[in-house]
Amino acid sequence: MTDKNTLQANYKTLPVVFSTSVFVAFASWVYFAPVTRGRMANVLRNEDGLTILGTTVFVIALVMALLLVTYAVRALAGLPALKSDGKTIKTYVFPFRSIPILSIDRIIIGSNDVELYDKRNRKRKINIRPINDAEVFFEEIKATIT
């Protein structure tokens, strides 16, 4: 929490940076792995380069790494994952979005995500696993809408 009117919740830095490192290392290993002998020979890579399966695995690992890099950079820079100025909630968890607080009808806080329901009973889910104190953040938002 920063000042009286602004709420914020930050990323869990160590898990976010560690998971980013794992996906970057895995994508690098798939791309630069040598051709091996044995049962796994020529599955991901052959003498000509990556196989179709190798390319698919590499692209999936690369997309995950790029997605997590945005979280890791924000976590290392100390930028918030959730921020509210009293009028809107800005989420910096994929997909990034702004949600007007006046449009929220009810909030259901789970262990892994938060469900925000608007006046027309449409649901928006926010993944709170990589965020510190997200429950406290949404409890304070919940107190303002009731």
Please count the helical segments: 3
List low-confidence stretches. Answer: none
CA gyration radius, whole angstroms: 20 Å
Structurally, how many domains make up the residues? 2
Which structural class best describes the helix and strand composition? alpha+beta
- In percent, how much strand structure appears in the residues? 25-35%
Trace the largest sheet across and list its strands. Answer: 1-4-5-6
Mean pLDDT: 89
Which bin fits the share of residues in helices?
25-40%
Number of strands: 9
Molecular shape: elongated
Q: What is the makeup of the main sheet?
A: 4 strands, antiparallel
SSE pattern: EHEEHEEEEEEH
Intertermini distance: 20 Å
Q: Topology, pairings included?
A:
Blueprint: E1 7-10, H1 13-32, E2 45-46, E3 49-50, H2 52-77, E4 80-84, E5 88-91, E6 97-100, E7 104-109, E8 113-118, E9 123-127, H3 134-145
Antiparallel strand pairs: 1-4, 2-3, 4-5, 5-6, 7-8, 8-9
Question: How would you characterize this protein structure?
Answer:
Helices cover 40% and strands 26% of the residues. The longest helix is centred in the middle third of the chain and has 26 residues, at 52-77. It is α+β, with helices and mostly antiparallel strands and 146 residues long. The two termini are 20 Å apart. It has 2 domains: 12-77, no CATH class; 80-145, no CATH class. It has helices spanning 13-32, 52-77, 134-145, and strands spanning 7-10, 45-46, 49-50, 80-84, 88-91, 97-100, 104-109, 113-118, 123-127. The strands form 3 sheets. Strands 1-4-5-6 form a 4-stranded antiparallel beta sheet. It is elongated. The chain contains 3 helices and 9 strands; from the N terminus they run E-H-E-E-H-E-E-E-E-E-E-H.
